Amino acid sequence: MADQQVSASILSDPALQLGAFEPMKSELRVQTLTRPSLSYWQDAWQRLKANKRAILSLYIIIAMLLFTLLGPMVWRVDPAEQDLLQVSSAPGAERSAIIVAPYSAWGILEAPKSADMQSNQAPAHSDTLAPSEAANITGLQLAETATTQQVRLEWQSMAGAADFAVYRNLVKPTGPGTFGLPLGTTGSGEVRRYEDLLDLRPGRFFYSVVAMDTTGGELPQSITLQVKVVNAITLEEAADRQLIKPGETRELGSQVNFALHPMGTDYLGRDMLARLMQGARVSLFIGIAAPVLFVLFGIVYGSVAGFIGGRADQLMMRFADFVVALPFLLFMILFKIAFGIGPGESGIIPLIVAMVILLWPATARLVRGQILQVREEAYVNAARLLGAKTGYLVLRHMIPNTMGVILVTLTFAIPSAIFTEAFLSFIGMGVAAPTASWGSMSNDGIKSMLTHPHELFFPALMISITVLAFNLLGDGLRDALDAKMRSRE
Amino acid sequence: MLSYTLKRLIQGLITVWFIATATFLAMHAVPGDPLSGAKAMTPEIRQNLEEKYGLDKPMSEQYLIYMGNLARGDLGISFTQKNREVNDIIREHFPVSATLGIMAVVFAGLGGTLFGALTALYRNKWPDTVIMIVVILGISVPSFVFAAFAQLAMVKINGAIGFSLLPVAGWGSVSHIIMPALVLGLGTMAYLTRLMRSSMLEIISSDYIRTANAKGLPPTRIFLKHEMRNAVMPVVTVLGPAIAAITTGSFVVELVFAIPGLGRYFVQAVQQLDYTVIMGTTVFFGAFLVLMVILVDLLYGFIDPRVRVS
User: Fold this and answer.
1) Quick check: A293 pLDDT over 90?
2) Are the C-beta atoms of residues A96 and A256 closer than 8 Å to each other?
3) What's the pLDDT score for residue A199?
4) What is the pLDDT of residues B25-59, one digit of tens each?
5) A82 neighbors A436 (Cβ within 8 angstroms)
């Protein structure tokens, strides 16, 4: 407008005729912007996109969120349901089973069919031989197919052994003392068979039978048999567990498949994949909700302190210092218990509340520092001179200009919150029992670490990947958002 | 210097008082009391016990009595362990936690400084890459997972070599300390390495290092006197909070390695709501941490003369 008025008044000046002017032939090209100008956030986003590690981490985090939010829709297995047929089974464990008749006793106590068995063993000699020589064991074999229902062994021996001890091992025995788990004794030298019902699992086992003398000492005679134990299920149970269609009958000995558990099951036979999804929801919810809340509180507290300044600021910051000095994990436990968990509750909310109460001061300090810095900037003074009110200053200038630092703090606070939850659940002070979290699953898994490592491995892997992704994303964000904090690489 | 130390000590005392008060309030907010966990008792017995422990008095009075005792250094008698003084419990179990914690801090501090300096000197070469991968692992893997896998590995190693290289769990000898201290310090070491690396990179590119090089000073002298001494500053600053994190965080490691430290006692006491043990351990830990932070701040003054001036 002003330009037009000026030019109009110049043109109306009679002393200046239009013809007196010639358009200037410019040799200098006027500097023009060839690209659209970028806002702070657009610039930051471009920088972040250039950082491959950070973008990969972002994808991992999105994948984790999809895993926990959409996973249960795809993998419809109840995480609380116990599959007692497959307890602590590793991923990829044998799933096929044969259908067997219901268990019936083998009649272990009835007199052995000794007449025909001993007749071909020439018992006449046994009186003349020393027991240690006579007690040779031969022909250890399975009386019927070895299944998880029972393993039935029978063998032959000359008279002379007072008793037989039966052992089971996972590895091939190399001599006396390496037979493995003692299962029991037959109770008599006349009984030459044994039925193993103890905690049977599918797989390869080595059964050993050792002859014993009258005093209960073991004789050097022994025999070992490699046995492949297969899963077994009765027809009735298979129907019960919906492994075969209702009404369908199968012959004994035919095969069925147990339910599929891609990541195995835990010590109570619960599906690991479903529990990991449920655990992800708990761990990520706590890991994200708690930092968001305490960062928000920290922002409010810090900006109020920073803006008011003076004695009130001093007092508020002193209080923040006190809270920082509280021994963190001890108070975490104490507060969490003080808020109480009712019966049937998961204990997630007390955990979050305790974290918010204890962790806000770091953000508050940071925001206060930023506010004090921004408050002195020229543009804030300019806005104030133009009559901007305090609320406008805070919302329009202070908070947006501290947002970068706050976002970085938040990204680093998330992995440490996930860690804290995992620690507390690990020592049994986190979420309450039926609820799964990665920490509580690790706690369950560590007890059977030596025999079933997958129960510890999967939840530990999930924690590590998530924490790693958030840390790398935080690094990337810091580099992208804050030139001063940019790590020198 | 003296007045500064005095001022810090007084501030520390106020902090300890604040910790004690916060603990007292939080503890009494927990539903139930130490006597409700025990077996059923008649109202008369309960009343007698309440009188004996002073639980029948109003809370404000209990608070004043406790604070009075605390000022005299008396932390009271445990509720759940007959006639055992909290002072005795701390005297017996704190040295265990402290030994473990100090070893872990020493390991984290030395390792962090050394590895951080190495990564900066060999920037973008293989030592840098290898150490940074270990650092990333140390930051991302929870210590209980490390503890579990370290145990597992040690079981295999001991089995493979046929004798016990390091004990898998327990407490009592020097060899018992090594593995838990390494596991406990690893997270902090990773953090310190990163800190040291960025600090060292900044120092290396500064003017006075160029001057020192131009003067022809021997590289080791430049490294030790000029680079290390300046680069280690930020590490020293966070050492106070690091000690805090390690000593209070030690009970996870204590649990996995079956170490009879104070942390385990605390978890037990919280479950049984043993008021005096909870108060005693928290106040003691709090006081210990406050003292550590003050000591580190004073130490900082010795390393960096500029701090003393201001």
Assistant:
1) yes
2) yes
3) 76
4) 888 877 777 776 656 677 777 777 777 777 777 77
5) no
Residue type, A9: S
- At residue A488 the predicted structure's pLDDT band, cuts being 50, 70 and 90, is very low
Q: Alpha-carbon distance A454 to A445, whole Å?
A: 8
Q: Tell which residue, A168, A142, A146, has the closest CA to residue A100.
A: A146
The tokens describing A120, both together, are: 């071909």
CA-based end-to-end distance of chain B = 11
What CA dihedral angle connects A431, A432, A437 and A440, to 10 degrees?
A: 100
B310-to-A310, A454, B103, B301, B304 alpha-carbon distances in Å: 21, 56, 33, 10, 11
Cα-based torsion angle of the residue sequence A355, A286, A53, B237 in order, rounded to the nearest 10 degrees: 10
Strand order in the sheet with A255-257: A231-234, A96-100, A255-257
Chain B residue whose CA is closest to A419: B142
Instruction: Tell me how far CA of residue A417 lies from CA of A292, B89, B139, in angstroms.
Output: 10, 31, 13
Cα angle A241-A244-A246, degrees, rounded to a multiple of 5: 85
**Whole-model pTM above 0.80?**
no
B106 touches chain A (CB under 8 A): no
pLDDT reported for residue A133: 57
Q: Which residues, at least 6 apart from B269, have a Cβ–Cβ distance to it below 8 Å? A: B80, B277, B278, B281
* The pLDDT value given to residue A16: 65
Range with the poorest average pLDDT among A130-144, A366-380, B65-79, B166-180: A130-144
Distance CA B192, CA B116 (A): 7
Cα separation values, B95 from A319, B40, B92, B184, B186, Å: 31, 37, 7, 16, 21
Q: Is B119 on the interface with A (CB under 8 A)?
A: no
Task: Please list, residue by residue across A420-445, b when 16 or more beta carbons sit within 10 angstroms of its beta carbon and e when fewer do.
Answer: bbbbbbbbebbbbeebbbbbbbbbbb
Q: Give pLDDT, residue A289.
A: 92
Bridge partner list, B157: none
Whether B198 contacts chain A with CB within 8 A: yes
* Side chain identity, residue A481: L
In the numeric block, the tokens 């580190």 are attached to: B296
Q: What is the pLDDT of residues B169-226, one digit of tens each?
A: 777 777 788 888 888 888 888 888 988 888 888 888 888 889 998 999 898 888 888 8
Express each pLDDT in A33-83 by its tens digit. Answer: 677 777 777 888 888 888 888 899 999 999 988 888 888 888 877 777 777
Selected for mutation to probe chain A from B119, B122, B139 (highest A CB count within 10 Å) is B139
Alpha-carbon distance A207 to A222, whole Å? 10
The minimum CA-CA distance between A381 and chain B, rounded to whole Å, is 30
Name the minimum distance, in Å, from the CA of B174 to any CA of chain A: 25
Phi, psi angle pair for B25, to nearest 5°? -65, -45
